[in-house]
């Protein structure tokens, strides 16, 4: 009652991949990841800088709206938090001027620097970039509202 044919036996032997084939595929995937990962990380860091520029523009607009409501910009002591939460000393606050409380943090998780009056205008909003230090190039470049 042996009903297994020669073709079925051959198919059974050819059913899987050899260890060598799997190692070759893993080596190729490793090379692709090693080449592509630095580029992807570079794009990610560049997108953080672009996001910071957009956030600074949004904060600048919110500061202008704050001034329209209160006839002055928030003090440095009140800080950018005044755009999200009402300061105790402000009677005509008509906020929140930013919809998200984390909108006053840069993409690297630090608070934006706020100076009023600013060196470059009525106010300055800035981020020190990825390294958190003044100066720098690329992803470490300082970004500001000016």
Provide a brief overview of the structure.
This protein is mostly helical and 146 residues long.
CATH topology: Glycoprotein, Type 4 Pilin
- What is the total number of structural domains? 1
The side-by-side strand order for the widest beta sheet comes to: 1-2-3
Strand content: 5-15%
The poorly predicted ranges are none
Q: Give the structural class.
A: mainly alpha
> Could you spell the SSE succession in H and E letters?
HHEEE
- CATH class annotation: Alpha Beta
Mean pLDDT: 85
Q: What is the helix fraction of residues, given as a range?
A: 40-55%
Ends distance: 89 Å
Shape: elongated
Number of strand elements: 3
Oligomeric state, counting identical vs distinct chains: single chain
Sheet bearing the most strands, described?
A: 3 strands, antiparallel
Descriptive account of the structure:
The protein has 146 residues and is mainly α. The protein has a single domain, classed as Glycoprotein, Type 4 Pilin. It has 2 helices and 3 strands; from the N terminus they run ααβββ. β1 (113-115) and β2 (124-127) form a beta hairpin. The longest helix is centred in the N-terminal third of the chain and has 52 residues, at 19-70. It is elongated. The model has no long low-confidence stretch (mean pLDDT 85).
